[in-house]
Amino acid sequence: MTTPVLEARDLARTYGRGATRFDALKGVSLQVHRGESLAIVGKSGSGKSTLMHLLALLDQPSAGQVLLDGTDAATLSGRQVNRTRNSTFGFVFQQFFLTPKTSVLDNVVLPLKIAGVAGAERKRRGMAALDALGLADKAKNDANDLSGGQKQRVVIARALVGEPSVIFADEPTGNLDTNTGEVVEDMLFGLQRERGITLVVVTHDEDLAERCDRRVNVRDGRIVGAQDDQTDAAATHGRHSA
Amino acid sequence: MNFLDLLKTAVANTFRSKLRTTLTVIAIFIGAFTITLTSAIGTGVSNYIDTQVASIGDTGSLTITKAVETSTDSGPAKYDPDESSQSVNRGPASFAYLSQSDVDRIKGVSGIRSVRPAVALSTKWVEYDGAGKYVVDIAANAGELDADLAAGKQLDDGSSAGNQVLLPTNYLKNLGLGSAKAAVGKQLTIAVDDYQGTEHTVTATVVGVQNESLFGGGAGANAALTDAMQAAQETGKPSSIATSYASATATLDSGASASTVKSALSKDGYTGQTIQDQLGQFQTVINGIVGVLNAFAVIALVAAGFGIINTLLMSVQERTREIGLMKAMGMGGGRVYTLFSLEAVFIGFLGSAIGAGVAILLGTGISNLLAGTVLKDLPGLQIMQFAPTSVITIILVVMFIAFLAGTLPARRAARQNPIEALRYE
Fold it and tell me: Is the CA virtual torsion B390, B392, B395, B399 positive or negative?
């Protein structure tokens, strides 16, 4: 069995202390395999976003470990964590977080700019990412002048531009109407399969969760049910990546 | 993110909210504008004084006067016939005169090569070739100082030089001497009255014409003419009146330190002043005024600094999610800090560069205008001069102030937690 690209071991995350203490996660263990799409499903306040933040190294667990390709993330330096988030991970958020009064292309190449990639190379890769999402003709537009669906495609292009191995998507279609949402989902899953990217989707949308290879349900800071089809899916993907 | 990208991003961010940036830039502009102008005035005036001093040339001379002590801390000073300002027998004196014995005593001070007492020449009138008599004051022994010549030569104090006179450019027209070049070589008739009221005349040759300046305001006589005029005006002097002088000019030995000689002189009851000392008093006043104006400008800049803090705090607030996103995408806190600091520095640069630029344009215009009108009598005085080093220093200092002002907002931005920032509504 290959090393999972991401693994959570007994993760716990507590906010506050004393009377205001709140346990967002109470010991979650989870494996994410290379190339699979995993849905983390739960109601709001269930701890699913906290779990994603911990897996994406945006936050540190109060207890437990996150393993990245078998390495404990706690042993990484701040710089290494930043570099991992920059080039190994891609992010798609519910809100688009596009910088207004800035061109679509500039928004897309932001991760490359942070990574210190040179201007010409940045432009080439940015245009390639936009092209993959069918937005090459919008490159020069102001990011604010796009429709919701277009914006989310720009966001996906931005997540893809650094050629990450894992994309985290937090309610990627939450702000879109059903039809547009489906188009965006098709693109996201298409690219994921095509490029062998691992996709971690956080959602409360049952339809979106159904389209993923595997799902885990989070309730009150714990993973519930779903254990049966996890082994099944893991086996499938073990074969895929082998 | 490499530095060039940070810089470009900072500049682009600055222009994203144009109105806010403009207002902050105006605040800095006012400070930088004022401070550039005031420092230009300082530079202009001190440059002028420096060139005047340079035109005088030799600085190894002291003007010596008798120190007046009419009172002590505990009331009137005791009468001392040797020390009193009244001890020179020349009628009631309004200030202390130097007698011949004083001059001899000064000669004895080590470091002084020669002493020439200042002779007061009381010229009655001056005439050129029947063109009319004019009142012209002639300074004695003017050959000691090098004049800023418009034509001709410097005065010659040699014994074989004959009577020579140096005139300023603005005297030529009335005296009927024509242009500066034409005036050189012409003979003037100079009249003085003696003690009996009898008029004596001497003739002198115009050897040079000097530009008007702070020190070259009048006509000057060489040693020969001084002696001739003094001899004429002292004809019939009562023997009871001793010759006395208001001041004396001492030439220092080469290598003698002016300050050592000055302290030796003050021990003997004399005051010695170099040209620089005399100008120093003038310059101190100018520097005081410039200093006060600069202080106001600095206050304006400090106020502008708070403007920068405010602008950037608002910007950090507005761009919380953008900062969160950049941090989520792996941008380090240090880079975020640098980005916001650069924005502050760029705002500072804009304000100070525009302020200094406008000040230079406006100041040069005003200065030229003044030089042609109000300050016409002081040729060569450009009241505002913009030294590149001081302008660059001002811009750099303002940028540094802006950087300091940006520290607080930049720290706040750098410490944003990406999750909190992204959740921020």
Answer: negative
Whole-number Å distance between alpha carbons of A127 and A122: 8
**For residue B146, is pLDDT > 80?**
no
Whether chain B has a CB inside 8 Å of the CB on A86: the answer is: yes
Whether residue B294 contacts residue B390, with contact meaning beta carbons closer than 8 Å, is answered with no
CB-neighbour burial class of residue A96 (10 A; exposed 0-12, middle 13-18, buried 19+)? buried
> Within the 43-62 window of chain A, which residues sit less than 8 Å (CB to CB) from chain B?
53, 56, 58-59
Q: Judge contact between A212 and A38, C-beta under 8 A.
A: yes
- A104: nearest Cα among A129, A121, A80, A79: A129
Within 8 A of A95 by CB-CB distance, chain B residues are 321, 422
Separation between Cα atoms, residue B13 and residue B345, nearest integer Å: 12
Q: Name the closest residue on chain A to residue B330, using Cα atoms.
A: A82
Query: Per residue in B16-51, pLDDT tens?
Result: 888 889 999 998 999 899 889 988 888 888 888 777
Start-end of H helices in B87-240: 100-107, 172-175, 180-183, 223-233
In contact, A73 and A64? CB cutoff 8 Å? no
Q: What pLDDT was estimated at residue B70?
A: 57
Among B5, B321, B419, the residue with its CB nearest the CB of A97 is B321
Task: Inform me whether the pLDDT recorded for A131 exceeds 70.
Answer: yes
Both structure tokens of A7: 């693994």
Answer whether B305's CB lies under 8 Å from B30's CB.
no
The 10s digit of each residue's pLDDT in A5-38 is 889 899 899 888 888 888 888 888 999 998 899 9
| Cβ pair A58:B418 closer than 8 A | yes
Distance CA A92, CA A94 (A): 7
Under the banding of pLDDT at 50, 70 and 90, the label for residue B90 is: very low
Name the one residue in this structure whose structure tokens are 């502008």: B304
ipTM computed for the complex: 0.85
Q: How far apart are CA B95 and CA B40, in angstroms?
A: 39
Q: Is the separation of the CB atoms in A209 and A39 below 8 Å?
A: yes
| Helices B333-372 and B388-414, packing angle to 10 deg | 150
3-state secondary structure of B216: coil
Chain A with chain B: Cβ pairs closer than 8 A: 55
Q: B115: which strand partners?
A: B250
Token reading at B152: 């001709």
Contacts of B330 in chain A (CB under 8 A): 81-87, 111, 114-115
In the prediction, which pLDDT does B220 show? Answer: 85
Contact B329/A114, CB-based, under 8 Å? yes
User: What kind and span of H or E run contains B21?
Assistant: helix B18-56
pLDDT at B93: 45
The Cα angle at residue B387 between residues B33 and B380, in degrees rounded to 5? 105
Q: Which of A59, A82, A99 is opposite residue B332, by nearest beta carbon?
A: A82
Residue B181 token pair: 């070049």
Distance CA B143, CA B187 (A): 18
Average pLDDT on A69-86 reads 88
Query: Which residues of B are less than 8 Å from A87 in CB distance?
Result: 330
- Reported confidence tier of residue A231, pLDDT bands at 50, 70, 90: very low
DSSP letter (8 states) at residue A103: B
Q: How many residues does chain B have?
A: 425
Closest CB to B329: pick one of A78, A95, A110: A110
The pLDDT, as a whole number, for residue A238 is: 41
